[in-house]
């Protein structure tokens, strides 16, 4: 009978210990959520700022390359490569 009481006491004690630990962990997590959420929002804002800067820079570079400002003032014919570009030698 004593052995049964000790076994039941041990099992219920371990269950109480686990429940107490879970409750303490839950309280600590609940208290840290606002701080973690503020940190998350700060990092999200920083990332969004960098994404905006890179996006604007990419849009400006794409618009500049498409606008034709990178071309020279006088157009030149494209060079050809290969045997067809060599003039035949006179006989």
Automatic annotation (TrEMBL):
Keywords: Membrane, Transmembrane, Transmembrane helix. The keyword Transmembrane applies. The chain crosses the membrane at residues 39-66. It comes from the Bacteria. Residues 71-91 are annotated as: Disordered. Residues 82-91 have a biased composition (Polar residues). This is Uncharacterized protein.
């Amino acid at each position: 009978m004593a052995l049964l009481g000790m076994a039941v006491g041990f099992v219920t004690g371990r269950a109480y210990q686990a429940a107490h630990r879970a409750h303490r962990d839950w309280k600590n997590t609940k208290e840290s959520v606002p701080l973690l959420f503020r940190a998350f929002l700060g990092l999200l804002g920083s990332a969004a700022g960098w994404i905006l800067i890179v996006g604007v820079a990419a849009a400006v570079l794409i618009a500049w390359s498409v606008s034709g400002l990178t071309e020279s003032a006088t157009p030149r014919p494209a060079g050809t490569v290969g045997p067809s570009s060599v003039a035949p030698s006179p006989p």
